[in-house]
Design goal:
Layout lengths: L1 H6 L6 E6 L3 H6 L15 E2 L5 E9 L5 H16 L8 H10 L1 H20 L4 E5 L6 H13 L6 H13 L5 H5 L16 H15 L8 H13 L10 H6 L2 H4 L4 H5 L32 H5 L8
Parallel strand pairs: 1-3, 1-4
Antiparallel strand pairs: 2-3
Helix pairs in contact: 5-6, 5-9, 6-7, 6-9
Length: about 300
């Protein structure tokens, strides 16, 4: 299968694999029958010793759903305790200790690397994590956002979420913790994977405000409706569940409401910051502020 992917590319015979996991996690999965690609076996040469195709692999070092859940919980606790930026260096240190910004940085860095290999190296890139429905969706959809201006339009972004998240089986019902009873064993499957993706998108919107047709309000409303239960879009774990439950007939889609929102007044189709369409973001933690509007807007002001 890998050879067929590599040989289908007329521009490059190198297939680059991005394993979203930390190397130690991927190695540990071998004990459970998993693992990762053996690049020494994923290559072929001619009788004259010339390379027909070869495989390289990078580990993105993105932590699993449990680490991400704990990180966001710690960050929310800082706000719930009434701590804020007025605390100065102590606040920045505590935010850093939660690891949230580091997680966002690693995701954006890996997505940028994928986009670079596709655009500059003209290589085929295979992306996966343990199962393919969490970190994989984050990386592929962000890489597409960086490469293709269509996905930065409102309609294009809806297509992106539909195909890379919903159709590919991100388990929205379990990750969002919808319809869980108290003490449900599925509680450990809850994780803010999609919210983390929206945070990454918001970082890109901040850095390239003219490149996106939608606004921060669009992203906030999308996040709200992942949890509101008003639409059937995010109530299921996979396409099979949607079909069996006739979701297209029994529930409303979130997209008509979102597509009707006001467009970004700063949007232009070919922003000067990226004349060829490709966005090159700054991915270091120092360039990635907290998405305060999403984290604090429902908090009450502390008494006194």
């Amino acid at each position: 299968m890998l050879e067929m992917i590599a040989m289908a590319n007329v521009h490059s015979t190198t297939l680059h694999v991005v394993d979203a996991r930390p190397y130690s996690n991927a190695t540990g999965n071998r004990g459970r029958g998993g693992g990762f690609e053996d690049t020494s076996r994923c290559s072929r040469t001619t009788a004259e010793g010339q390379s027909c195709w070869d495989t390289t692999i990078d580990f993105a070092g993105i932590d699993n759903i449990h680490t991400i859940r704990a990180s966001l919980c710690e960050l929310q606790e800082l706000f719930l305790r009434g701590e804020g930026e007025s605390a100065g260096g102590r606040w920045l240190s505590k935010v850093g200790d939660t690891g949230w910004i580091d997680h966002v940085s690693r995701i954006l860095s890996a997505a940028d690397e994928i986009a670079e290999r596709i655009e500059q190296g003209r290589q085929s890139v295979l992306v996966h994590c343990s199962d393919g429905w969490d970190r994989t969706a984050q990386l592929t959809s962000l890489a597409m956002l960086l490469l293709d201006p269509y996905f930065r339009t409102k309609r294009g972004f809806a297509v992106l979420v539909e195909k890379e998240w919903l159709a590919f089986g991100h388990k929205f019902r379990e990750r969002l913790g919808l319809l869980l009873a108290e003490g449900d064993s599925k509680e450990k499957e809850r994780s803010p994977v999609f919210f983390q993706f929206l945070d990454c998108v918001m970082q890109l919107l901040r850095q390239f405000p003219a490149a996106f047709e939608f606004t921060e309000a669009f992203l906030l409303e999308l996040h709200d409706h992942t949890l509101s239960g008003l639409f059937g879009t995010f109530l299921y774990n996979c396409e099979r569940e949607r079909v069996l439950d006739a979701a297209d007939r029994r529930t409303a889609s979130v997209w008509p409401a979102l597509l009707a929102t006001e467009p970004n007044p700063a949007y232009v189709e070919a922003p000067a910051a990226a004349p060829a369409g490709r966005l090159r973001p700054r991915t270091g933690p120092a360039h990635l502020p907290l998405w305060s509007a999403a984290l604090t807007r429902w908090l009450c002001e502390p008494e006194g």
